[in-house]
Amino acid sequence: MTRAYVNGRIFTAETDPARAWATAFTVEGDGFGFVGADADVPAAAETIELGGRLVLPGVTDAHTHLLHMGAALGQVPLTDARSLDEIQARLAAARAADPEAPTLRGRGWLFDSIPGGRPTAAMIDAVVADVPVYLDANDLHSTWVNSAALAELGITRDTPDPIGGSIGRDAHGEPNGMLWETAAVQYAWAQRDAAATDADRDADVERAIETYLAAGVTAVVDMAFDEYGLAALERAAARRGGALPLRVAAHWLITNTGDDTQNLAQVQRAVDLAAAPSSPWLRVVGIKLILDGVIDACTAAMRHPYADGSNAEPIWSPAQLQPVVDAADAAGLQIAQHAIGDLASQIALDALEQAVAANGEIPRRHRIEHLEYAAPGTAERMARLGVTASMQPVHADPAIFANWAEMLGDARVERAFPWPEYEDAGALLAFSTDAPTAPHDALANMYVATTRASALDPVVPATHPQYALPLERALGHATRDAAASVGDGGWRGRIAPGCAADFAVVDTDVFEAAPTALLSARIVETVVAGVRRHG
User: Fold this and answer.
1) Which class does domain 197-493 fall in?
2) pLDDT score of 458
3) Is there a contact between 139 and 297 (Cβ–Cβ < 8 Å)?
4) What is the dihedral of CA 19, 22, 26, 31, to 10 degrees?
5) pLDDT band at 381 (very low <50, low <70, confident <90, very high)
6) Cα gap 255→430, rounded to integer Å
7) What is the 3-state secondary structure (H, E, C) of 174-204?
8) What are the structural domain ranges in the chain?
9) Phi, psi of 368 (to 5 degrees)
10) CA pair distance 86, 106, nearest whole angstrom
């Protein structure tokens, strides 16, 4: 059956300006048929009046953590708790509201909300000491815990630091309540995974899917996929007869064990999964490598020290990284490398160049994730190699920028998140949110992208407004280019004949209204493959 949508204001995300806008389109099965003017709409079995409303291509959140996002939506929110007193008050209130809970979990706290940026277990113990408390930082690269959690994890002064991470310690060598980088993953997150049931993870997946569809997101790229996420999404598909209500492309997380054989065995698991996808709705398309940490915690690998004179070693040394990159590239997997510091992005590109030399000219579209600070020339080098710049406007929100800038403390601050640089170099630029490290809302993400102002606190002045993008370009990076970032650019991410019928109807024309309308506009309807999934 053909359905005709008419009298709309339709942003197609086509790169040709003459085709960037339309007023009508048809949906034939799971794809778009005609796209153009109302006067030219072919006959259809059903006509749907849009009433002048704005229609956008479905957004692809090109870097997210689906299972973690669903879990975070059910935890104590701490991003806007801007003092230790407020954090403690929220923890105490959450404990009082559920006194039988065996554990308390929170997420999103910011380092500059803590005195001196140095959280301790004692700060949590002061309000919740009877059960373990686990608080993930806003960047998801460290976890703050109380004394009961340290005891539950079995962490003592004799516990060694894992590869690529560290256990925070006081002046006497005792654990102080901070788990940095891989220490958070191997201890706090492992405990979380062991304690969670399949029912918990199923609820997390459903919560995340529902939330994304309500935001006009029709596809996601999961950037830390593992056995838990795979099983949970396979169960979600099975509950629906084999399909999901949004498209999931995933990158299998490869952890650095320090042993090449074990590292390559993880790559082989990704190769096997990519060769036999569960369904067209759930595909493993590549691997994810976390090369460094984050600037806010001074764990990103930089060419030059932080303001306090410290620096961080990369989580993957070049010698350990190269065999993994070579193997994944040879197998046709997409390689996504988390690189926030400029030393990390240099290591990432060096590894990709060596893989090209080793494996020859084969089709490839690799990615670097985040690129919060990259040295001049990085964008041009990425363009030459055909490497996608995967970046998150919400990470540049001015409300959370002060600590980032303080950690660098020099001229590097002026090169924070320079999105136009990647456009000018000709690199593919894909936008995403990295939820739950930042708010998932697609339109709020576009607000930061187009204003460099804060979606979290509108009274905070804009930071680096010279890097703001026009809305048409920002949305293109969140739809067309985000789809292309996982090889889907030919058939989705645009409202165009032959493309998948993934789109969202918005209650406000955010192109005509003030920029702040991006913070209040709501999605009226979300359609995926021609089927209404929200609204």
Assistant:
1) alpha beta
2) 86
3) yes
4) 40
5) very high
6) 24
7) CEEEEEEEHHHHHHHHHHHHHHCCHHHHHHH
8) 71-195, 197-493
9) -120, 130
10) 13
- What pTM did the predictor assign? 0.92
Please, what is the Cα angle at 416 between 454 and 458, to 5 degrees? Answer: 5
351: left (phi over 0), alpha (psi -120 to 50) or beta: alpha
Q: Which residues, in sequence order, are bridge partners of residue 24?
A: 36
Question: Residue 462 pLDDT > 90, yes or no?
Answer: yes
CATH for the stretch 71-195:
3.10.310.70
In this model, does residue 138 exceed pLDDT 90?
A: no
Instruction: Output DSSP code: residue 17.
Output: G
pLDDT of residue 1: 85
Sheet (strand 46-49) strand order: 31-36, 24-28, 2-6, 46-49
Question: Do residues 427 and 387 make contact, with C-beta atoms less than 8 angstroms apart?
Answer: yes
CA distance 189 to 185: 5
In sequence order, the 6+-apart residues with CB closer than 8 A to the CB of 17 are none
Compute the distance between CA of residue 269 and CA of residue 398 in angstroms, rounded to an integer: 40
Residue that the structure tokens 């700060």 belong to: 123
**Residue 398: predicted pLDDT:** 97
pLDDT classification of 429: cutoffs 50, 70, 90? very high
Cβ burial of 114 (10 Å; 0-12, 13-18, 19+) is middle
What is the rounded average pLDDT of the residues 501-513? 98
Alpha helices in 386-441 (DSSP H): 401-408, 419-425
Dihedral (CA of 231, 208, 108, 483) sign: positive
